[in-house]
Design goal:
By secondary structure, this protein is an alpha/beta fold. It is built from nine helices and eleven strands. The strands form two sheets. Strands 4-3-5-2-1-6-10-11-9 form a nine-stranded mixed beta sheet, with helices on both faces. A two-stranded antiparallel ribbon has the order 7-8.
């Protein structure tokens, strides 16, 4: 029995790149879509927000000299590419999926309309929210939090490359200690690099819990949806 009726799953663009670190890896996409589809078949309503790092990180050096607004718009368009690729992979698993984008691209995806998004979820469709909030200076973490609140999700599930939230970077420090549970205030005051501070503050102000877990461990999305102890809970 699933713990949650509706979740917002936040994925980084890098997870779609696989070992290549750039672009879209077909094998990684297939494995990821199978896991998400398995959760959807249990009746859990899933909203998805995916980053654009697998494309945009590759041109980040050139973007350093760009206007910030222009660079952010490029990043938003990268998330649209990822959303369409993810939609294709999920529909190959037999799960109806809709891409809704904050930037109007009628030939490619539906415009984001809150009530329509909720209706899609109620009908058992996975909804992928692309193009961030359509505003520069906001990350996909903030977009994920905003969409989670708008669709009345019960949790923001942040999938990462590590097992949870640590007191310091576990990829650089072997003595890093993982939290089982941590407060919003601690995350902000200790500058724990989980999500942007604006996203954490928004979750705190609206009492939206965040579950941080390792996407590279097979079955973790299902464990999280079932309410098993996986990763770190921020609340």
């Amino acid at each position: 029995m699933a713990k949650y009726e509706r979740i917002l799953l936040k994925l980084s663009g890098e997870v779609m790149a696989g070992p290549n670190g750039f672009g879209i890896d077909a094998a990684r996409m297939e494995a990821l879509s199978k896991e998400v589809a398995e959760v959807a078949r249990t009746g859990v309503q899933i909203g998805l927000v995916v980053g654009g790092g697998n494309f945009f990180r590759g041109v980040a050096a050139a973007a350093r000299d760009m206007d910030r607004v222009a660079a952010d718009h490029m990043g938003m368009l990268a998330t649209v590419i990822n959303a369409i690729a993810l939609q294709d992979a999920l529909e190959k698993q037999g799960v109806p999926t809709r891409v809704m984008t904050a930037i109007q691209i009628h030939q490619v995806a539906e415009p984001y309309i809150r009530r329509r998004a909720i209706r899609h979820l109620e009908k058992g469709r996975i909804v992928i929210f692309a193009a961030g909030t359509s505003n520069p200076y906001f990350s996909t973490d903030t977009a994920a939090t905003l969409r989670a609140l708008e669709i009345k999700a019960q949790v923001v599930a942040k999938a990462t490359r590590v097992d949870g939230v640590y007191d310091k970077d576990p990829l650089k420090h072997s003595d890093a200690v993982m939290y089982q549970e941590v407060s919003y205030l601690e995350v902000l005051s200790k500058s724990l690099a989980v999500m942007d501070s604006s996203a954490i503050a928004m979750c705190r102000d609206n009492q939206m819990p965040i579950q941080v877990f390792n996407l590279n461990t097979h079955g973790n999305i299902m464990r999280m949806a079932m309410g098993e102890k996986v990763g770190t809970r921020i609340q």
